[in-house]
């Protein structure tokens, strides 16, 4: 079919705007905190609400059990031979704590100064609300003259996607698709639309150095008993070279550097180190020397210490040699790295550093998933970029994110290798995961226009 004219989509939005906003508010009212068993019923109710919205848009829907909050699955068959688009999102939200920091109740959405305030107003219910609104419009305007669309919404994304991860291998036929579309990301700092071209993979572990049977008096035993805290510090320091590059043998195996085309796209959005320092309180000097911030964050693997604990940490002093020391580690991976191999290399490195007289125990070793990376020259990217230019009036920028959404790697693989297209309209000012989360109506409208235009052209 011919793509819907943008003016037609914009006019339809204005005619239905108030109704779309009320639906958006209705979604936010569900306290669907997926990580809290107290809200299991709220999650089920929210899943049922989204299933009903999809039925209004012509979808056949099911609530699929995963041993966790249910997964909403919907399918709307399209033209024979048309591409199959799988839309992934999540209806669960972060806990609202601290409640006293909210200006208005988190699950009683309030619209003021062009923004809707409430937990989930942006992440991800606001972006799902404009997706649902666009799907309804496409159903009214196109009937069945559209590509086949599938929708998969989970209720555990904010806490690890355990249920979906466990169930996905058995759902290959349900989720098989040509494109995996995700509306759960951000625009550029400049306000330009952004296409997320890659996400890093993730592995995690806990390392514990065990020594004496109990904490020992540092006067009586200093110089005799090996110190687990000192040993752990040396082990952690051994993870990196002087220039900041990982020093773990075999950890970087398979890493693919950015291509010339990727380097060209990477610098379209300048990186402002002063803005970064204002936002975080520290300058962007971490990672490997000699590389740009964009390359360090999107194209290089990292090993980070997430937390350390040993001995006494209270007021004053307690002169002991601690019985044990513990650290939490995570590693972000890039395209080409095998997460299992990288995790094994990290564990082997730590064990090899074990000092005499102490024991090294590795636990909670977890593979979160491999990295995702889109082909910069793919027709999919070109199609999305053209729609974004038409909708936003600005050339999109291209982001290779340092973060991870581990379930997306698995979902893309189970879906038959469907390339992921991540385009969202969030901004830092939305304060997702924090009190007073919000989402602006003008960006809700951009998301609606993007989805309507993109899907009608496939």
Short summary:
The chain has 458 residues and is an alpha+beta fold. The chain has 14 helices and 18 strands.
What does this molecule look like?
The chain is of the alpha+beta class. It folds into two domains: about 5-200 and about 370-455, Zn peptidases (Aminopeptidase, 3-Layer(aba) Sandwich); about 200-260 and about 295-370, Alpha-Beta Plaits (2-Layer Sandwich). About 35% of the residues lie in helices and about 20% in strands. It has 14 helices and 18 strands. Strand 1 and strand 2 form a beta hairpin. It is globular, with a radius of gyration of 24 Å. It starts with 5 loop residues before the first helix and ends with a helix.
Blueprint (SSEs and pairs):
Elements: H1 6-28, H2 40-56, E1 60-64, E2 71-76, E3 84-90, E4 110-112, E5 115-117, H3 125-142, E6 148-154, H4 162-167, H5 172-175, E7 179-182, E8 194-199, E9 201-210, E10 216-217, H6 218-221, H7 228-237, H8 260-266, H9 273-280, H10 293-298, E11 302-310, E12 320-321, E13 324-333, H11 339-352, E14 359-369, E15 372-373, H12 379-392, E16 397-401, H13 406-414, E17 420-422, E18 438-440, H14 441-456
Parallel strand pairs: 3-6, 3-7, 7-17, 8-16
Antiparallel strand pairs: 1-2, 2-6, 4-5, 5-18, 8-15, 9-13, 9-14, 10-12, 11-13
Helix pairs in contact: 1-3, 1-14, 3-14, 12-14
Broad shape: globular
Main pleated-sheet profile: 6 strands, mixed
**CATH homologous superfamily (4th level) name of the largest domain:** Zn peptidases
Helix content: 25-40%
CATH top level of the largest domain? Alpha Beta
Distance between the termini: 8 Å
**Radius of gyration, in angstroms, nearest whole number:** 24 Å
In the CATH classification, which architecture of the largest domain applies? 3-Layer(aba) Sandwich
Average pLDDT value? 95
Number of structural units classed as domains: 2
């Amino acid at each position: 079919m011919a793509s819907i004219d943008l003016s037609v989509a914009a006019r339809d939005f204005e005619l239905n705007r108030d109704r779309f906003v009320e639906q958006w508010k209705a979604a936010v009212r569900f306290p669907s905190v997926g990580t809290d068993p107290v809200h299991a019923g709220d999650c089920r109710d929210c899943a049922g609400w989204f299933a009903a919205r999809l039925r209004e848009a012509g979808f056949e829907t099911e609530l699929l059990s995963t041993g966790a909050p249910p997964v909403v699955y919907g399918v709307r068959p399209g033209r024979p031979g048309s591409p199959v688009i799988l839309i992934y999102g999540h209806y669960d939200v972060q806990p609202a704590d601290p409640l006293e920091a909210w200006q208005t109740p988190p699950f009683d959405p309030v619209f003021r100064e062009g923004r809707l305030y409430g937990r989930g107003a942006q992440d991800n219910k606001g972006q799902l609300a404009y997706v649902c609104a666009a799907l309804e419009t496409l159903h009214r305007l196109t009937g069945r003259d559209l590509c086949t669309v599938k929708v998969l919404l989970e209720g555990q994304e904010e806490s690890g996607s355990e249920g979906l991860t466990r169930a996905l291998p058995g759902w290959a036929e349900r989720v098989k698709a040509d494109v995996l579309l995700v509306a759960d990301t951000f625009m550029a700092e400049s306000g330009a639309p952004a296409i997320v071209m890659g996400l890093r993979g993730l592995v995690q572990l806990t390392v514990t150095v065990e020594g004496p049977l109990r904490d020992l008096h540092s006067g009586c035993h200093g110089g005799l008993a090996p110190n687990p805290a000192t040993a752990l510090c040396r082990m952690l320091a051994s993870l990196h070279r002087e220039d900041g590059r990982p020093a773990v043998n075999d950890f970087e195996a398979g890493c693919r550097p950015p291509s010339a085309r990727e380097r060209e796209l990477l610098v379209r959005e300048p990186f402002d180190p002063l803005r970064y320092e204002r936002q975080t309180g520290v300058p962007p000097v971490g990672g490997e020397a000699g590389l740009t911030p964009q390359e360090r964050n999107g194209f290089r693997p990292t090993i980070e210490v997430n937390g350390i604990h040993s001995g006494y940490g209270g007021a004053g002093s307690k002169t002991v040699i601690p019985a044990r020391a513990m650290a939490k580690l995570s590693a972000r991976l890039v395209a080409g790295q095998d997460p299992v191999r990288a995790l094994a290399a990290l564990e082997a490195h730590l064990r090899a550093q074990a000092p005499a007289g102490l024991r090294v125990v590795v636990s909670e070793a977890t593979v979160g998933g491999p990295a995702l990376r889109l082909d910069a020259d793919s027709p999919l990217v070109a199609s999305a970029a053209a729609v974004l230019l038409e909708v936003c009036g600005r050339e999109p920028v291209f982001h290779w994110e340092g973060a991870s959404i581990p379930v997306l790697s698995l979902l893309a693989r189970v879906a038959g290798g469907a390339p992921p297209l991540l385009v969202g309209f969030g901004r830092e000012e939305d304060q997702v995961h924090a009190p007073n989360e919000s989402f602006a109506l003008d960006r809700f409208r951009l998301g609606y226009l993007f989805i309507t235009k993109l899907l009608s052209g496939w």
